Amino acid sequence: SMKNQETMQLSNKFSILNTLFFALAAFMQQGVDFIPRSISGRLVAGVWWYFSMILVSSYTANLAAFLTVKRMVTPIESVEDLARQTEIKYGVVRGGSTQTFFEKSDVKLFQRMWTYMQQRDDVFVASNEEGISKVRKSKEYAFLLESTKNEYTNERSPCDTMKIGSNLDSKGYGIATPVGSELREAINIAILEMSEDGTLNNLKKKWWYDRSECHSDTTKVC
User: How many domains does the structure of the chain reveal?
Assistant: First the structure.
């Protein structure tokens, strides 16, 4: 009869191959020319359609967020990268030795960075402590300071700062004495001897790194 023939056609349509094709088409949000006729079949199809919609929507949202973040975040791995971008501000201690370095530099890159800082009064701080605090609070600020203080800070709790790139300049610290002091020669000789026999390096290793409060990678720019 006509009814039996129709039933046979429906059963033939939903073979294993066609069922897999129907599931794939629903997952890819494409239509097919046959749908379940029974209540149980329609229920299963509805659940699958709902599941596919949620899965595809979640994937699309996560992919869009990932691509947006990846496009917005510019990795800063050197002073050149820092000077090239505008999202992360950078500054120095007002009137400090680092400011003097930028003011008197003949390097075009550093001259351009100094011009940038002069045009933005809010990037200057009164002390190293204020600069480090500004890095931690703003999350969009890089503080340029002496490497010795930088490295010491990075080894101290809460371990949320890090040094980016290599040093901009090479200079050392000295011990001041009155003009003509008899101590000057003795201090010079003692410092040279301590430098040659490794005492100064050992002291820095002891107080900077051996007593470090940080034992994992850090995350902020300093």
Answer: 2
